[in-house]
Design brief:
The complex is a heterodimer of chains A (about 350) and B (about 600). With about 350 residues, chain A is mostly helical. Chain A has 14 helices and no strands. Chain B is of the alpha+beta class. Chain B folds into three domains: about 70 residues, no CATH class; about 260 residues, D-Maltodextrin-Binding Protein, domain 2 (3-Layer(aba) Sandwich); about 230 residues, Dipeptide-binding Protein, Domain 3 (Dipeptide-binding Protein, domain 3, Roll), CATH 3.10.105.10. Chain B starts with a helix and ends in a 5-residue tail after the last helix.
Chain lengths: ~350, ~600
C-alpha cells in the first residue's frame, strides 16, 4: 500500500469520525430538557415571542428534518446562529480562535522548550537527584488540576506579589490608550507588526500565567516521554559503540540519541497539542481569556446548542486533523512504520 | 590650567539648580489631578440587544442607563424627578398627562431633543411589541401620544384608563428616548439591525458614538462579551462644570466570581457585584473596598401549584407555609443580606404593607393543618423546581428538603432546571398546567414598572393561558381589587393602598405562594470613590456622572512633574556643556594642537 492509498484511507476514516461526532452532538443537544426558543426570545418573553422564535429556529419541525437541514447548512459552512449572542457561530468561532491558538501555541512552546531538556537531563542522570526532581515536577505537572493551579498562580503573582496581571489578554490601559489594530487576531503578532511596543509587552505579560498553567500537563508529558525514550536509546549498542570510539558525550546525546528518541515521543507530544485546545477551555474560563473555550463555557451554561455543536465540530476537526497529520508525518519520517 | 573660578561658579549653579529641582520634586504643591477612568467588572456577560425599543434585560440597563434617558427618573427614596421632562401635570381623572420637555437637550448624534423625538421613540417601542411581541412595550398599552406644532416641547399622553404615568415613563425598559435620526436607516427591523451591529457592522461601521441617546456618556467601543467603553458626552445638557467627573468608563465582562473578587481587592476594578455573600464581610473590612447593601425590589417566591393534589388544598398550602424555615433561609442563604418577605410586594414599592401577616415556622401548626385537611404528610411526594444556575435557589431548595423531610416526613424532590425547562414543565402557553407539573415553583421576581401591581398582576392575576401566574391562582375578587387599586394609584392613593392591602390579605389566607425573602442589593465599590448611591429601581445601574473620582495616585512624583523640571534640566545640561568645553579648551592635548603658548 502506497502513501497515497494510506492517506486516502485515513482521510475517509477521519470523515466518518467527524460525521459521527456531528450526529451524536446534534442529537444529544436536542434531548437536553431545554427550549432554545425561550432563550432566543430573551428575558420575560411572551408565549407569542417563544412561538415565533421556535418557528424561526426551525424547532417546530421534526427532529430528522432539523438534522438534515443542519447537515445541509454545514456543508455550506453555515454553523447556524447563536441563540444567546444572536450572531453567526462560524463568525464567532473564527473571531475567537486566534486568542485560543495564541494561548495554546505559547503553552506548547513553553512545554517543549522546558520539557525536552528536562527529559534529556533526567535520562542522562538516571536515578540521580536531578532525575528524581525532574520526575517529581513532571508528575506534578501532569497530575495537578489546572483550575487549581491557575487560581493559585493568580493569588501568588497578582494578589501577593503583584507582578503579573490578573486576567484577560490586555490591560484596560492598553485597550484604551494603545489599542491593537486587529490584523490576525493574535495580539503578539498584531502588536509586533504594527510596532505597538507597549501593547506587545502588555500582551506578553498577560500571556504568562495562562500559558504556564496550560503548559503544566504537556510539560509533564513531554518530559516523561523524552526521558523514557532517551533511556531506551542510550542503552542501544550504537550509542555504546559511539562512546567506545571516543565521540564526545554532548555529540552522542544531542546528535545520535535525541534524534532517535524524539520520534516515538513525537506522536504523544503532538496529540497533547490537540488536547491543549480543549485544556485551554478551562484556563480561558479561569483567566477570562476571551477565546473559543470561554465562548463554549458560556454556551454550555446557557444551553446555546448551535454554539455547543459548532465548537464541538470545530474541535473534533482540529483533533482529527492533527492526528491525521501526525500519522502521515510519522509514516514519512520513520521507515519502520508500515502502511 | 583649569579656571578654578569657573568651576566653582559651575558647581554653585549646579547646586542651586539641583536645589530648585528638589524643591519642585518634593516641596512645591502639586496641582490636584483626579482619576478619569472608572473600571467596572460586570458579571452579566451577555449583552445582545442595544436597541432601546426592544431591550428587556438587566444586562442592558446597566449600560443604557448612562447612554439613554427617560422623561422622569425614580429616586432611591421613591420620589419621581424630571430628566428629559422639566415638569408635568395630570387631569383630575388621571387620563390626560402633559409633560414639558427640557430645552437644549442634544442627542449624541447632534440632533435636538423635542416632542417629536419622544413620540417617535415611544410609538416605535409600542409598535414593535404590538406587532412582534418583542421588548417591554406593553407598558404603553392604552396610551396615545399627542404633539403640538406650536409647542415642540410639550407632549400630551392620553390614557384609556388611569395609570401612574410619571413612573411608567421612568421604567427601566421601553421608556428610553432616542434620536429621530435613526428613522433614516429604514423600518423598525432595519433600525434594530443597525443599532445591534455587531461590530464592525451597522452603527459600528462609522465612528463613535455608537448609540443614539442623550445620556451623559456615549458608547465608544463595544466588544460583545469582552468589554464596553463609555466616554463623556461633552454636550450633555447637565453640563460638566461642577466636576471632577469620570471621563471614561470601562466595563469588563467577567463571569468568574473569584476573578472579580481578586480584581476589586487588587484595585484593578472600581465596582462589581454578585460576589459570594460569605466574602462580603471580609471585603467590606478591607481598606480598599466598601460593600453597599440596600433593600432591592427583588424577592424570592415559591409558587404553589393550586391545581394539583395536594397543593390544590388551601390547608395543605398553609401547612407547608408554616413548615418553611424562613429564618434559617435568611441566615444561611442570605448571610444577613436580606429579610423575610412580608407578602409579595417588597419594601419601598407602592402597595407594600408594613404590618401584613407573616408566616413563621411552626411545625405543630403545620401538623394540625395537615390533620384538618385529612392528609398524612409522612411519605407525601412533592416536587420543587428551581433555576439551576442560581446558587441561592439551590441552597433554599436543599434547606426546604431537609426541613420538610426531617420534620414532617414529606418526600420532597428538588429538581434543578434551566429556566426555560422549568417554565416548560409549568405549562407556559397552555390553558391548564400539565399533570407532571411541579408542586412548588421557586423563582425570583423584580418589576418593570415601579408599582406593587407589577408583582401582583403577573404572578397572581388570572390569565387565559399560563404565562407568569405559575401558581395558577384564579380569583375574580382578587383580580378586581388589584385592577382597581392600580387605576387609583395616582388619583386616590389612599383607597388604592387599602385595596392593595385587601388583595394581599387574600393572598395570605389563600396561600398560593411561599414568600421567602426580599433580597438586598450588595454592590462593591472602591472605598476612595464618593457619591455612589444604589437605586433599587434600576438594578445595578451606576450613574457615573454622580460619582466623585478620587485624586489620582502618582506612581512616581518624578514622572508626574517632568514638565516642570524641563527648564532645570536644560540649565544643568548647559552648565555641563560649558564645563566640558572649558576643560577641553585647557586640556594639554588641546593646547598642543593649538600650539598653545602660556
Amino acid at each position: 500500500m502506497g502513501l497515497l492509498t494510506y492517506t486516502s484511507k485515513r482521510l475517509i476514516l477521519s470523515a466518518i469520525v467527524i460525521l459521527g461526532t456531528i450526529s451524536i452532538t446534534f442529537f444529544l443537544s436536542r434531548v437536553v430538557p431545554s427550549n432554545p426558543a425561550v432563550l432566543w426570545a430573551g428575558q420575560h418573553p411572551t408565549a407569542e415571542q417563544v412561538k415565533k422564535a421556535s418557528e424561526m429556529l426551525g424547532l417546530d419541525k421534526p427532529l430528522h428534518v432539523q438534522y438534515f437541514t443542519y447537515i445541509t447548512n454545514l456543508m455550506r459552512g453555515d454553523l447556524g446562529v447563536s441563540v444567546r449572542f444572536k450572531r453567526s457561530v462560524l463568525w464567532d468561532i473564527l473571531y475567537r480562535l486566534p486568542a485560543t491558538l495564541e494561548l495554546v501555541i505559547a503553552s506548547f512552546v513553553i512545554a517543549l522548550v522546558l520539557g525536552i531538556p528536562l527529559g534529556v537531563i533526567s535520562a542522562v542522570k538516571e536515578n540521580k537527584l536531578v532525575d528524581h526532581l525532574t520526575r517529581t515536577i513532571s508528575i506534578a505537572g501532569a497530575s495537578v488540576p489546572v483550575f487549581w493551579l491557575g487560581i493559585v498562580f493568580k493569588i501568588i503573582f497578582f494578589g501577593t506579589l503583584g507582578i503579573l496581571p490578573l486576567t484577560g489578554r490586555l490591560s484596560i490601559e492598553t485597550t484604551l490608550y494603545n489599542p491593537i489594530t486587529r490584523i490576525t487576531g493574535f495580539h503578539l503578532i498584531d502588536s509586533l507588526v504594527t510596532g505597538n511596543g507597549p501593547a506587545l509587552i502588555d500582551a506578553l505579560a498577560h500571556l504568562v500565567l495562562p500559558a504556564v498553567t496550560l503548559a503544566a500537563y504537556p510539560l509533564g508529558l513531554c518530559t516523561r516521554m523524552v526521558r523514557a525514550t532517551m533511556i531506551e536509546v542510550l542503552r542501544e549498542n550504537y550509542i555504546r559503540a559511539a562512546r567506545a570510539s571516543g565521540i564526545s558525550e554532548r555529540t552522542i546525546i544531542f546528535r545520535y540519541a535525541l534524534k532517535n528518541a524524539i520520534v516515538p515521543a513525537f506522536t504523544a507530544i503532538g496529540l497533547s497539542f490537540a488536547y491543549s485546545i480543549t485544556g485551554a477551555f478551562l484556563i480561558e474560563a479561569i483567566f477570562d481569556w476571551k477565546g473559543l473555550g470561554w465562548y463554549l463555557v458560556y454556551a454550555l451554561s446557557a444551553i446555546d446548542y448551535p454554539v455547543i455543536v459548532g465548537v464541538t465540530i470545530f474541535v473534533c476537526i482540529f483533533y482529527v486533523a492533527i492526528n491525521l497529520f501526525l500519522d502521515i508525518l510519522q509514516a514519512v519520517v520513520d521507515p519502520r512504520v508500515k502502511y | 590650567m583649569v579656571n578654578k573660578t569657573a568651576v566653582a561658579i559651575a558647581v554653585i549653579v549646579i547646586i542651586v539648580v539641583g536645589a530648585i529641582a528638589g524643591y519642585y520634586l518634593f516641596m512645591m504643591p502639586k496641582p490636584i489631578e483626579y482619576e478619569t477612568l472608572f473600571t467596572r467588572a460586570e458579571p452579566a456577560v451577555i449583552v445582545t440587544d442595544l436597541d432601546p425599543s426592544t431591550q428587556f434585560s438587566n444586562e442592558i440597563v446597566i449600560i443604557c442607563g448612562n447612554m439613554y434617558e427617560t422623561l422622569t427618573w425614580v429616586e432611591p427614596d421613591g420620589d419621581v424627578v424630571g430628566v428629559l421632562a422639566k415638569d408635568w401635570s395630570f387631569s383630575d381623572d388621571g387620563l390626560t398627562w402633559n409633560f414639558t420637555l427640557r430645552q437644549g437637550v442634544k442627542f449624541h448624534d447632534g440632533t435636538l431633543m423635542n416632542s417629536t423625538a419622544v413620540k417617535l421613540s415611544i410609538d416605535r417601542t409600542f409598535r414593535i411589541f404590538d406587532t412582534t411581541g418583542t421588548g417591554a412595550g406593553y407598558i404603553w398599552y392604552g396610551v396615545t401620544i399627542t404633539t403640538f406644532d406650536d409647542d415642540p416641547y410639550l407632549v400630551q399622553f392620553n390614557l384609556e384608563w388611569p395609570m401612574p404615568l410619571d413612573r411608567i415613563v421612568a421604567a427601566s425598559y421601553a421608556a428610553w428616548v432616542f434620536s429621530p435620526k435613526v428613522f433614516d436607516v429604514g423600518d423598525d427591523d432595519a433600525i434594530n439591525e443597525w443599532l445591534n451591529g455587531p461590530p464592525p457592522g451597522g452603527i459600528f461601521a462609522g465612528d463613535p458614538p455608537y448609540d443614539v441617546g442623550t445620556g451623559p456618556y456615549y458608547l465608544d467601543e463595544w466588544d460583545p462579551g469582552s468589554h464596553a467603553i463609555l466616554k463623556k458626552f461633552d454636550d450633555y445638557w447637565g453640563g460638566w462644570e461642577e466636576g471632577p467627573y469620570y471621563e471614561t468608563i470601562y466595563t469588563a465582562y467577567i463571569e468568574e466570581v473569584a476573578t472579580r473578587k481578586e480584581g476589586i481587592l487588587g484595585e484593578e476594578y472600581d465596582f462589581t457585584y454578585l460576589l459570594a455573600k460569605e466574602d462580603l464581610a471580609s471585603i467590606d473590612a478591607s481598606p480598599v473596598a466598601d460593600v453597599v447593601d440596600i433593600p432591592s425590589f427583588q424577592n424570592l417566591l415559591g409558587l404553589f401549584n393550586t391545581k394539583k393534589w395536594p397543593t390544590n388544598i388551601t390547608l395543605v398550602r398553609q401547612a407547608l407555609a408554616y413548615a418553611t424555615p424562613y429564618q434559617r433561609i435568611v441566615d444561611d442563604v442570605l448571610v444577613g443580606y436580606g429579610v423575610q418577605a412580608r407578602g409579595p410586594i417588597p419594601t419601598g414599592l407602592f402597595g407594600h404593607i408594613d404590618d401584613l401577616f407573616q408566616y413563621t415556622q411552626n411545625i405543630t401548626k403545620a401538623q394540625e393543618l395537615f390533620a384538618q385537611a385529612g392528609i398524612d404528610p409522612n411519605g407525601l411526594d412533592l416536587l420543587l423546581t428551581y433555576h439551576a444556575p442560581d446558587p441561592d435557589e439551590a441552597k433554599v431548595a436543599e434547606i426546604m428538603k431537609l426541613e420538610f423531610e426531617g420534620k414532617l416526613g414529606i418526600d420532597l424532590e428538588v429538581r434543578a432546571m434551566e429556566w426555560d425547562a422549568q417554565w416548560d414543565l409549568a405549562g407556559v402557553g397552555a390553558a391548564e398546567p400539565p399533570t407532571e407539573a411541579q408542586h412548588i415553583f421557586v423563582f425570583y421576581w423584580w418589576p418593570t414598572i415601579l408599582s406593587g401591581y407589577d408583582f401582583l398582576f403577573p404572578m397572581f392575576h388570572s390569565e387565559p393561558e399560563i404565562f407568569f401566574n405559575l401558581c395558577y391562582y384564579n380569583n375574580a375578587t382578587f383580580d378586581d381589587l388589584i385592577d382597581t387599586a392600580y387605576s387609583l394609584e395616582v388619583t386616590d392613593p389612599t383607597t388604592s393602598l387599602q385595596k392593595y392591602e385587601q388583595a394581599q390579605e387574600m393572598l395570605i389566607d389563600d396561600c398560593p405562594s411561599i414568600f421567602f425573602y426580599d433580597l438586598k442589593n450588595t454592590h462593591v465599590i472602591r472605598e476612595a470613590i464618593e457619591g455612589y448611591v444604589d437605586n433599587p429601581a434600576y438594578p445595578h445601574v451606576v450613574l457615573y456622572r454622580e460619582l466623585t473620582p478620587p485624586v489620582e495616585e502618582k506612581t512616581s512624583s518624578f514622572m508626574a512633574d517632568t514638565d516642570s523640571l524641563i527648564p532645570c534640566f536644560y540649565l544643568m545640561i548647559m552648565m555641563m556643556t560649558y564645563l566640558v568645553k572649558r576643560r577641553w579648551d585647557y586640556s594639554p592635548t588641546r593646547r598642543r594642537d593649538l600650539s598653545y603658548q602660556p
